[in-house]
Specification:
The protein has five helices and no strands. The chain is mainly α and 121 residues long. It has one domain.
């Protein structure tokens, strides 16, 4: 992989991880009491798991985004980038909607909208 391509990959990773950190600060510890007061499934993982999983998730999203924007073969669906970016925007707003604004129904709608968008491509 050339230095230019490697630099591009690192740029995507840094951007996505910074977005993840920003979202964490915006919807972070001040909402712990509210979140802890919710009735949750016994299958809900402990809080520290999210701190491990989210950076890995955003790393993978950054690599996917790099590959999506630098693909050599055109994908049949011309709308894949539109659907992807719409999903990312919904994803980025989900945490503040749920954790800051406590709009549970709206966050559930956003979840299902992302699911539907994923099925379109």
């Amino acid at each position: 992989m050339s230095k230019q391509l490697l630099s591009s990959v690192y740029t995507w990773i840094i951007c996505f991880e910074l977005i993840s950190i920003l979202i964490g600060f915006v919807s972070g510890p001040s909402n712990d009491l509210w979140y802890e007061s919710l009735k949750k499934s016994d299958l809900t993982p402990p809080g520290y798991v999210f701190g491990i999983i989210w950076p890995i998730l955003y790393l993978n999203l950054a690599i996917f985004t790099y590959r999506l924007h630098n693909r050599k073969i055109k994908i049949k669906s011309k709308n894949i980038e539109k659907y992807f970016w719409l999903q990312m925007i919904i994803n980025w707003f989900w945490s503040p909607i749920f954790l800051n604004l406590h709009l549970i129904n709206c966050s559930l709608f956003a979840f299902f909208l992302n699911l539907i968008l994923a099925m379109l491509y």
